[in-house]
UniProtKB/TrEMBL annotation:
Protein name: Sodium:solute symporter
GO cellular component, one term: plasma membrane
Naturally occurring in which organism (per UniProt): Dysgonomonas gadei ATCC BAA-286
Transmembrane segments: 6-23, 43-66, 78-98, 119-146, 152-169, 181-200, 234-251, 272-299, 319-337, 373-391, 403-421, 428-444, 456-475
Location(s) in or outside the cell: Cell membrane
Pfam families: SSF (PF00474)
Record-stated family: Belongs to the sodium:solute symporter (SSF) (TC 2.A.21) family.
Amino acid sequence: MGITILIIISVYFAVLLLISHVVSKKDSNNDAFFLGNKKSPWYIVAIGMLGDSISGVTFVSVPGMVGQFDMTYMQMVLGFFPGYLIVAFVLLPLYYKLNLTSIYGYLQQRFGLFSYKTGASFFILSRIVGAASKLYLIVLILQTLVFDQWHIPFYVTVIVIVALIWTYTHRSGMKTIVWTDALQTICLLAALGLIIWQVASKMGFDISQVADTIRSSKHSRIFVFDDWVSKQNFFKQFFSGILIVIVMTGLDQNMMQKNLTCKTLKDAQKNMVSYGFGFIPMNYLFLSLGILLLAFATQYGIMLPDNPDQILPVLATEYLGMPVLICFTIGIIAASFSNADSALTSLTTSVCVDLLNVEKKEGEEAKKIRGRVHLLVCIVFLLVIFFIDHINQTSILDTIYKAASYTYGPLLGLFFFGLFTKINIRDRFVPVVCIFAPLLSYTLEYTLLHTLDYRVGYEILLLNGLFTVAGLFLLSRKSNGIKVGLN
């Protein structure tokens, strides 16, 4: 089994390296690395963004959550689509109008240097922690399946995988990733479809029986309207979905950088709308797989692990046979690396453009700085993964993800205040507001839990953003007119 998985990984990376070689042969300058020379076909970008949105953690977690939360995650997924429309028709026109490489450049034009550096810093922090955490969990699965058998240390596995990602991204960055992510999305969707087909075959089901099993399952519930305290309440989930897309896509350099590689604003909008629409059936398939896995375990009397994230890996490796194991391996590799490679590239872009002002430099000097930064980002990525491993592996990951999500609240507040008010602020105090807003949000969340037994879900992003907006109002000064806004 270990050798089979290793062969799959080797062939997969060989294809990625081939694509990188072909794409970067003509151009590897900073314009290609940051924005792909603005020549990316919108439909290729849309396909790649689907894979980037589904991390390896999602690949194993979404099917596993069905046993605990039914299919209520679809409520949030349905909220994603209006969020994508807002990103497409409110934020993208602004980014294209200002001809931005980093979207946080808007904050400098609207408020000033401190706001700009603060927004970029919050993105860098959240993306490093989030992307490293996601890659860590998948490397851990591969370590268990393959490399432990050969007594290869975990740190060696991590170094090799990050080095391989660096190898196919360091020359042309986003220009390469647009195409490699499209390939990885196709592999991800093919793997998902083949796993569903194999599970159905093991159970002796045809298509109609699969549909009946999903429809009649006690876990097929999608909507929750009657429990206002629950995190699964429809209104909490739906509006949180809208908010999450605005912040984690529209205000995230990693996701927006791909859109900015499109030739025109119209192409970028077509990409965003089609990508947002495709996200709905893809997540429904993941949840449907979760129901089929539960039905399979019941049919064969299999005791499932307590950790829902382990359900798909355990069944794939021990009960569903080699075809499913191969598809599972391809799926988690495709999902994980499409997320990690774009994260490393967008982090390099943000550091170069937002912190080091590389765009003001010319020629080979700018290219050399970008190369050094990309290598440094990879090293920091490694250190974060090692730190996560040191603090007892998966037990703290939920806390890490929650802490990372707090960093998007100040970004939401900054952009909302800039777009929908004409107020100028005392720019130098913005970092203070953006630090205190998450602290106040955490205090409120803790208080509501221990006084009213109210569990705050993803709406903490909204509260965080509102605290930021309130703080910015306190920093307001006499306006001489808006610098850059919606119009």
